Amino acid sequence: MSDETRRRTERLRLVFGEMLPDTTSDEQPGEPADRDAEHDEWYRENRPPHYDRPV
User: Fold this and answer.
1) CB distance 37 to 44 below 8 Å
2) Is residue 2 part of a domain?
């Protein structure tokens, strides 16, 4: 890494905090089905009550 790249990276870190990871969570190993199930559970627990009313 060149000195200019290091200085630029340091300036970005100072302004924005920690840099984003090189990969996102959907690119990392793990069971996507488990993550989906957790998301679905959170959604059911936090679903607004008026969504359950019949139209």
Assistant:
1) no
2) no
Distance CA 21, CA 36 (A): 21
Count of alpha carbons within 13 angstroms of residue 53, beta-carbon side:
4
- Average pLDDT of 17-43? 74
pTM: 0.33
Tally of structural domains, the chain:
1
Range of the domain at 51: 31-55
Quick check: is 11 in a domain?
A: no
Overall size of the chain counted in residues: 55
For CA atoms 46, 49, 50, 54, the dihedral sign is positive
Residue 35 lies in a domain: yes
Amino acid, single-letter form, for residue 13:
R
